Amino acid sequence: MKEYLPLIGVLIGTILGWLLSQVGQWFVARREEKKAIARVLSELLELRLRLLAIPKVLELLSQHFPIPPEAQTGIRLVFSQVFRFDAEMGHRYSEAVSLVAASNPLLGYRLRCQDLVSPWLDTLRQLAANDGAASAAMFAKLDDELLGHLKPHFEDLLKELARMHGWLTWWKMRRLLHRPIELPENFSEMLKRHIQQIPQEVQAPAVQAPTVPAMTPVSEPGEAVTKS
């Protein structure tokens, strides 16, 4: 038995070394995966903010004066230029998704092309606005319905990625998603300042009271009408 002890020691040392090597590689892979997930989370949060900021602006404007449905599509187009889609964002997002797909191809597949949602919506808005007031008014309702479906889709992806990054990140993400969308403070103040400068008659046009014609008194039967 004693002659096997050195061989057993070598075997145990080899197994322990292999296990430590595997654990070390797992930690390195996990660290790289978390970095990739963090990058995707950051880009996806920015995409979500741009997607929801435009209806937030429309909501703020609607609090000051009524906006007809046919004008809402044009306003969304105007402010889509204010919250312009960064061309570099698509490149950064694709790189981050590729890093995630290297370790989780199914998740990488689900994350692909999420950055094209906002440009796709802008294209549809432009087509509707060019087609006339009726199409613009109809697409304003469709726009709200599409955003109603896209918002939970983005939030589900964000919560899944946050859980993969870590439970603390998941908890913070849930708190963040429950907060209402907030526009940048400077932008909100600038928008309110310009709204206040709009003449009151433009914000809420006065409704002219209908002219009531003068009524001629009607005499009772048998009563003579006195002429001057």
Can you tell me about this structure?
The protein has 228 residues and is an all-alpha fold. It has one domain (2-189). It is 75% helix and 0% strand. The N and C termini lie far apart (144 Å).
Keywords:
single chain; 228 residues; mainly alpha; 9 helices; 75% helix; 0% strand; elongated
Structural class call reads mainly alpha
State the helicity in percent bands.
Answer: over 70%
Overall geometric form: elongated
Number of strands: 0
Order of helices and strands: HHHHHHHHH
Mean pLDDT: 76
Regions with little confidence, pLDDT below 50 for 5+ residues: 198-228
Report how far apart the termini are. Answer: 144 Å
Radius of gyration equals: 32 Å
Q: Biggest β-sheet, characterized?
A: none
* Count of separate structural domains: 1
How many separate helices?
9
Strand content: under 5%
Summarize the entry for a quick read.
The chain is mostly helical and 228 residues long. Helix content is 75%, strand content 0%.
What secondary-structure arrangement, pairings included, does this model have?
Elements: H1 5-62, H2 69-82, H3 87-103, H4 105-111, H5 117-130, H6 133-165, H7 167-178, H8 185-197, H9 200-203
